[in-house]
Design a protein that fits this description.
7 helices, about 150 residues, mainly alpha, about 55% helix
Amino acid sequence: MLANVKRFSYWAESRNLNPFTAPVHQILDFLAELFHSGAAAATINAQLAAISNFHVGVSNSSICLFCKAFLRGTSLLRPPVKEPLPPWDLNLVLASLILPPFEPAASCSLKFLSWKTLFLISITSARCVSELHALCSPSIPSFSQTAFP
């Protein structure tokens, strides 16, 4: 957050403005410059949050209305891009679970048996496809990174 505060302070001082009391239209000019330089809506939102922590007038509700409208516009003009989750074929996965290293169970290692059990419990208890796709999300650590070194 400190970097965001410094960025706005440098910008304001280069225009002979006091960063603590700069008019709203100047704050919006700063945010517009960020937008035109390619910043994402989330980056601009974080910048405004940093400014609102130290700026005297941004907490005013009428000023916030202008800022919220601006942020709404940036998110409409440049919506966040979500990487699609990779498609997967349930039949292929199930067919793989009856082959080595998952079978025969008597000679299967604990690691592969745990993976198979976890998958089968997950696939039978998930209420919707999005819950299963969440397992593929990069924000969730994979088994190979955590549970089974």
